[in-house]
Each structure stands twice: as C-alpha cells, then as structure tokens.
Design brief:
- This protein is an alpha+beta fold.
- Helices cover about 25% and strands about 35% of the residues.
- The protein folds into two domains: about 230 residues, P-loop containing nucleotide triphosphate hydrolases (Rossmann fold); about 120 residues, OB fold (Dihydrolipoamide Acetyltransferase, E2P) (Beta Barrel).
- InterPro entries: AAA+_ATPase, ABC_transporter-like_ATP-bd, ABC_transporter-like_CS, ABC_transpr_MalK-like, ABC_transpr_MalK/UgpC-like, Mo/tungstate-bd_C_term_dom, NA-bd_OB-fold, OB_MalK-like.
- One of its GO terms (biological process) is carbohydrate transport.
Length: about 350
C-alpha cells in the first residue's frame, strides 16, 4: 500500500504537451477515479503512473520513492486493461500464475495466492478453463485476479468495463468497489463514464485537455461544480444552462421573465449577465405564470420518473418530473428552480459563483 504524489507533472509527445504540469495527491488506500472526455489525458496519466510512458518534467512519488526513472517492473504496480490482455493458450490458473513465475516464486508460494484471489472473485470453477470458454465478465475477473495475486502497492484500471454490456458493467462495477474495500489498496481508475466515476470513487478527478478541473468527493463535484465544464460533464442528463441578465438585483431570462430574487441572493453582485445552471431533477413544476414557461417537445418515461425535453427561454432544457404528472408533447409546463439548488456561472471565465458573489 502506498500514497501517490504528482508535482508539476509534464508529459509531451514531440512538440505537443498532453499534460502541462499536473499536481495531485492520492492517499494510501484511496479509490481515485480519473474522468473526462476522450483525449483529456487521463489514460496517458495512468500510463505515466505505470511506467509505460516517460515523464518529461516534474516528480512522481509512490510512497516515499521518487519513481520518475524507475522501470514499470520495479514500481510494484498492477494494471488491469480494457481488453483483458489474457493469454488465450493458457488456462485461467496459468494466466494468474504467469507473472509470479516470472518473478521466481515457487509453485508452493503461487498456489495459495491463486486460490485466495479466485475465491475473492468467485472464479474458482473456471481455473482450469481457457479464456475463450469464459464470458466477458468472467474474463475481466480473471484480469483482476492476475493483478491481485501480485499483491501490489497500487492498482491501475484503464477503462476495464468498456467492453461489457450495460447489466454486466453495473455488476462488475459493484464488484470492483467491494474489492477495493476488502484489499485496502490504493486504486486509480480511468473512465470516460461519469456514472462509473460517481458510483465508485472516494474522490473524482475531472480532467480536460490535461488539466485538472476539479477534485472532490462525488457529492462535492455534483453539488458544487467548479465550472461550466464540470457542471456539464458530471450528471446524466447534463445540467441545463440558461443565459440571464442582472437587473436591479433581479435575474431576468431572455424571454423577459424574472426568477425569484431570494434564490440567488448575493450571487449576482457586480455582474450584468450570467449563466444559470439547473440540474433536471432540480426543476419544480409550479402554477401557471409562476416560473419559466417550458413547451414540451419530447417525453421519455423511465418508470421511476419521466424526462421532459422542452424549449424554455429560447433554450432546450430537460426536466426530471414525477411519472404521475403524465406530461404530453405540446403541453406547456411552468418550471422553477428548487430553492438553493441552482448555480450561477461567469459566462467569460466559466467558473461558478458562490453565494457571496465571489468565484470559486
């Protein structure tokens, strides 16, 4: 087990800077999820941690060791890949034993490690099968078992659920989270799926263009996004954004309607125009003329709730409403932000403004 420290970490590919100086502290036994869109640098950062990519600047510490020049084989890290990377001609048992054999461990030392990992992952019945005889979820468990038997200081996961169907993805996701609590080992998990990030992480690291946008618990990142990018990326469906103007300490939408002044008390100070952010579940349906007029163009019943796609104040918005409302296409709803649940962003800097009128 070990902590990870990155100080002004830089990674270049030729003249292109992919990570332009990154600082991050990961605590011992912490489950960190790196999340962001394709090309944001999260997988590159994981490969740098693993020693598969050279560092072009800064410092990388694993525990109390500086590992900038240390080869991958000596970093005591185990990595689980997206494509499982199992040897097709070997049995499950042989796949799990291979790395230990290369390290010179005896058969007597290897056997109990395999049995323990197989029991932990519920793959004991498959130890003598080859990968082609396994399902996708079983293969991913074998890939995790191969990492577990090495007893590393740090586990790295590079989008390991991407090849699984939706139901299996949810199952394996829960298994990895449970596994992290049992093993009590530092884990760094890369994904572009914000739902995976929200459900698995102790802390989420949101990245864009190689730069960390926000670090925090899933609740912190969801409830208090640092900027427009984080607000739009975290949450499904995405947060709604509406341009507003500040007039005499009131907020007015482009259609001329006013929002309750008490909702944004103090936040609008010193600004003439802002961006209002509201999550779909934070819209309340109110009486006619009491909120934002929203004309429904599409209804998505989800069983436990219903998503309403509508045009409001010149923008398309999504509201999550009770299925008992039974909204229909063409209907007009009046929506109001729930008290204390809306956000304001500076349209120029894109940062969120807190209740004192200051940016974060």
């Amino acid at each position: 087990m070990a902590s990870i420290t990155m100080r002004n970490l830089v990674k270049n590919y030729g003249n292109v800077t992919v990570i332009p100086g990154l600082d991050l502290e990961i605590a011992d036994e912490e489950f960190i999820v790196l999340v962001g869109p394709s090309g944001c640098g999260k997988s590159t950062l994981l490969r740098v941690l693993a020693g598969l990519e050279a560092i072009d600047g800064g410092d990388l510490m694993i525990g109390d060791r500086r590992v900038n020049e240390l080869p991958a084989a000596k970093r005591d890290i185990a990595m689980v890949f997206q494509d499982y990377a199992l040897y097709p001609h070997m049995t499950v048992r042989q796949n799990m034993a291979f790395a230990l054999e290369m390290r010179g461990l005896s058969a007597a030392e290897i056997a109990p490690r395999i049995e323990e990992a197989a029991k932990l992952l519920d793959i004991q019945p498959y130890l003598d099968r080859r990968p082609k005889a396994l399902s996708g979820g079983q293969r991913q468990r074998v890939a995790m078992g191969r990492a577990i038997v090495r007893d590393p200081q740090v586990f790295l996961f590079d989008e390991p659920l991407s090849n699984l169907d939706a139901k299996l993805r949810g199952q394996v996701r829960a298994e990895i989270k449970t596994l992290s609590k049992k093993l009590r080992t530092t884990m760094v998990f890369v994904t572009h799926d914000q739902i995976e990030a929200m459900t698995m992480a102790d802390r989420i690291v949101v990245m864009k263009a190689g730069i960390i946008q926000q670090v925090g618990t899933p609740e912190e990142v969801y409830e208090n996004p640092a900027n427009l990018f984080v607000a739009s990326f975290i949450g499904s469906p995405s947060m709604n954004f509406l341009p507003v103007e500040v007039q005499a300490d009131q907020l007015r939408l482009v259609d001329g309607s006013l929002l309750p002044t008490t909702l944004m008390a103090g936040q609008a100070a010193g600004h003439k125009s802002l961006t209002l952010g509201i999550r779909p579940e934070h819209f309340e349906v109110v009486g006619e003329g009491q909120g934002i007029a929203a004309d429904i163009r599409l209804v998505e019943p989800l069983g436990s709730d219903t998503l309403v796609h509508a045009f409001a104040a010149g923008q398309e918005v999504i509201a999550r409403v009770s299925p008992d409302l039974r909204p229909v296409t063409g209907q007009r709803l009046w929506l109001s932000p729930a008290s204390g649940k809306a956000h304001l962003f500076d349209p120029e800097t894109e940062v969120r403004i807190d209740g004192t009128g200051k940016v974060n």
